[in-house]
Amino acid sequence: MTPDQPTTDDIVAESALQLWSAAQTDFDPFEVDSADWPEAAVPVRDADIAVDTRLEVDDVRDSLERLDGVKVVVGREAGTLSVLRVVPADTPL
Prior knowledge:
The protein is an alpha+beta fold. Helices cover 38% and strands 16% of the residues. β2 and β3 form a beta hairpin.
């Protein structure tokens, strides 16, 4: 892999951001300050990210586990991982 090729985590993070943003019907995350995002955001399932990225669901789940708390907030229910929220880029780690 060359330095300019995205990693699986990069691909999953970008897909999660785009799908999560598209799923929000009450606000536009790109237009509303992250401090004003509602708590009841629409989650995005691991299977949806897998379809979008053409990656295996297990690879997406592994990546989401690594990204949890860094790029996304992940919820777990009945064996499914869901992106509950994205972490704004300006959030200190």
